[in-house]
Amino acid sequence: MTRRDADPTTQGRTQTLERTQTQRPRLYRVLLLNDDYTPMDFVVMVLERHFRKSEQEAQLIMLAVHHKGQGVAGVYTRDVAETKVAQVTAEARQHGYPLRLVAEPEAGE
């Protein structure tokens, strides 16, 4: 913007801009829930492929799901968490498995 094109209501005056404080986005945990039909090797594959877990990490999470009823696959912003839930659920259904995932807000936020 050249000086000639400046807003006539602010000529000769200093304009004050407000600074907005940014906040970190709320984080969501993606939880895998136990069922009696989805094979353990499928759960491990999902954790490796969609959540970028090592084989050892995926095995530990899968065992937590099996023994405790649920396990944390990852922590993401809301949009990413919901997308991962949708993608994994769709893949599980394609293979005929009832695997359930949920995204819930991280505690303390």
UniProtKB/TrEMBL annotation:
Q: Where is this region: Disordered?
A: 1-22
Q: Where is the composition biased (Low complexity)?
A: 9-22
| Pfam families, alphabetized | ClpS
* Domain Adaptor protein ClpS core intervals: 24-101
Q: Name one GO biological process term.
A: proteolysis
Does this entry carry the keyword Lyase? no
Highest taxon of the source?
Answer: Bacteria
Gene Ontology MF: a single term = peptidase activity
Q: Which SUPFAM superfamilies match?
A: ClpS-like
Protease in keyword set: yes
Question: Which UniProt key words apply to this protein?
Answer: Hydrolase, Protease
Q: Which InterPro entries match?
A: ClpS (IPR022935), ClpS_core (IPR003769), Ribosomal_bL12_C/ClpS-like (IPR014719)
Describe the family membership recorded for this protein in Swiss-Prot or TrEMBL. Belongs to the ClpS family.
What does the record note on quaternary structure?
Binds to the N-terminal domain of the chaperone ClpA.
Chain's role? Involved in the modulation of the specificity of the ClpAP-mediated ATP-dependent protein degradation.
What is the recorded name of this protein? ATP-dependent Clp protease adapter protein ClpS
Give the organism the record lists: Deinococcus terrestris
Could you tell me the gene encoding this protein? clpS
